[in-house]
C-alpha cells in the first residue's frame, strides 16, 4: 500500500468549483497522488470539543452556507462511510483526548474539494472536528494521526490561506486581491518555504495583513493539523495551488 502525503487545501465557497484554474490545479495535484484507501477531512467549518467523528455508515452533506444559486444546494456526494477509520482514530488517541461520535455529514469545506478530486465519490470519507484552534495542539494531533498515512489514508486539513470576508469590497470571483491578502499570502508562502513552523504558529502577531487576513482564525488553523502529520514539519512543503479567488488566497500545500 502506498504511503499517502497530507494536504492543506484552501477550499473556498461552493462557487469555487466554477474557477477553472483552481479546478485544474486541484485535479493535477490529485493525479499525482496514490489512490487513497480512505480520506480523513478536517474542515474549518466544524469546531467541536471533544474531538468528534462524523457519520460513518452513510455520509450526508451539510449545506452550511447561504445566498448562492440553487444548484449549489443540489450538489450530491454519496461517498461511503469509513467506520474502520473511525475506530482506528479512537485507538490512536491518548486517554487525555476524548473522542465522541455523531451522525453529522460533510460540510462544504470537506465535500467541495472532494467533488473535484474524486468526483466518483467511491472512496470512504470521514470528517473529524477541530477540537481546538491552537497551533501547538493541532500539530500534536497531526502527529498522532500521522500513522494513518502508512495505512493508505489521505489526511486533509481544509481552510483558506486568507479569509477576511468582512473586509472585502469587491465580491466578484476575479476581484483584485486587497493588499492585506497579498501581503499575508506572500508571507505564508515564504515562511512555508523556509519550514518555519514556529513563525507560522505565531501568525496572529507576526504576519503582515493581520487581523484583516484572519479576523477569526478557524480557516488558518487546519494547516497545523497537516503540518503535524508531516514526517518533518520543518521540511518545505510543495505548494501546487496559488492565486486568488474573490481576493482571497487559494494557496494550498502537500507534505511528505
TrEMBL record:
Pfam families: LigB. SUPFAM superfamilies: LigB-like. This is Dioxygenase. Gene3D superfamilies: LigB-like. It comes from the Bacteria. Its cofactor is Zn(2+). Keywords: Dioxygenase, Metal-binding, Oxidoreductase, Zinc. InterPro entries: Extradiol_dOase_DODA, Xdiol_dOase_suB. Residues 31-232 form the Extradiol ring-cleavage dioxygenase class III enzyme subunit B domain. Belongs to the DODA-type extradiol aromatic ring-opening dioxygenase family. PANTHER family: 4,5-DOPA DIOXYGENASE EXTRADIOL-LIKE PROTEIN. It comes from Paractinoplanes durhamensis. GO terms for molecular function: dioxygenase activity.
